[in-house]
Design a protein that fits this description.
The chain is of the alpha/beta class and 289 residues long. The protein folds into three domains: 4-137, Trna Endonuclease, Chain: A, domain 1 (3-Layer(aba) Sandwich), CATH 3.40.1350; 148-222, no CATH class; 225-288. Helices cover 51% and strands 13% of the residues. The strands form two sheets. The protein has a five-stranded mixed β-sheet, sandwiched between helices. Strand 5 (120-124) and strand 6 form a beta hairpin. Helix 1 (4-15) packs antiparallel against helix 6 and helix 6 (155-164) packs antiparallel against helix 7. This is Transposase (putative) YhgA-like domain-containing protein.
């Protein structure tokens, strides 16, 4: 099942796609800021019933007019099958959109991050037909931001720093700086990135510290923005759960789930989705009521 911290690690690039270019410039790799960014569907499923889905897929339009696709994958641990999936994603996207594609892997675990950098070779021993070499962001290369002024200047990068370093000894200092920086920006943006931080910390000990910090201002958790983000995430989890269980989700059912903003209703639907034999079963008790 998709976890909250898994979602946060790639959704931060949807909230501010430019954080990708800024992070890699900090690592000495010159990438231009995008002039426009579009979110593409991450669904790479073919006609045959084999689902292949990225975490996030973005289309970057650059000033030179060429543009490229950014495929983002959040990776929690080493997976022997993942490299083959990444090779498929890159080949499929290049063929479908005829655009250069960059694979970005984000991980909170330094060992996993180093493994994910590859390169991964495909072919026979005498001849390599394909090499997959992802960009990787993790504790080994994401900047540690412990200066409030710097964090306030780039909240998305500071949030990414807090999430990727959540298992480090510096986690407490990074979170305190991020908390202070959020107080210096508009409340709507602060709510979004406070929520992403909470989700991204997952079950790490840093989560308790973040919640203690946020307890000083409960408005972060009671905000309309926060509730909207929770509802959106839960709705997407319901659709994802049904699809993983091989249950067809009609356009009407998908729209009903994704347009719902009532977290209590969505929680009930999620519980039913775990055992439902059809998408209609998810709404069965609602009809009885």
């Amino acid at each position: 099942m998709v976890s909250s911290n898994h979602e946060a690690m790639h959704r931060i690039f949807q909230e501010d796609p430019g954080v990708f270019a800024r992070t890699f410039r900090a690592l000495g790799m010159p990438l231009a800021d995008p002039v426009a960014v579009s979110v593409f569907t991450p669904d790479l499923t073919e006609i045959r019933p084999m689902e292949r889905r990225l975490d996030t897929l973005l289309h970057f339009e650059t000033s030179d007019g060429e543009g490229f696709l950014l495929a983002v994958e959040a990776q929690g641990k080493r997976d022997a099958d993942k490299a083959a999936s990444w090779a498929y994603y890159l080949a499929f996207l290049n063929a479908k959109y005829e655009l250069p594609t960059v694979l970005l892997v984000v991980s909170q675990d330094a060992h996993t991050a180093r493994w994910a950098a590859g390169p991964f070779h495909f072919g026979i021993h005498e001849w390599t037909s394909m090499i997959v070499r992802p960009f990787v962001l993790g504790p080994h290369n994401v900047p540690v931001i412990t200066d409030v002024a710097l964090a306030a200047e780039d909240i998305p990068l500071a949030t990414l720093s807090a999430i990727t370093h959540s298992k480090d000894e510096n986690a407490g200092a990074i979170l305190r700086v991020l908390f202070s920086a959020l107080k210096k920006i508009d409340k709507t943006t602060a709510h979004i990135f406070a929520e992403l931080t909470e989700l991204g910390l997952g079950s790490t000990p840093a989560l308790d510290l973040w919640r203690d910090l946020m307890a000083a201002d409960l408005s972060f958790f009671r905000s309309e923005t926060s509730m909207r983000l929770r509802a959106q995430s839960r709705a997407e989890d319901i659709v994802r759960l049904l699809e993983l269980r091989g249950i067809e989700v009609s356009d009407d059912a998908r729209e009903r789930i994704l347009s719902c903003s009532d977290l209590d209703i969505l929680t009930g639907w999620f519980d039913r989705a775990a055992t439902a034999s059809s998408a209609d079963d998810v709404f069965s008790e609602d009809r009885q009521d």
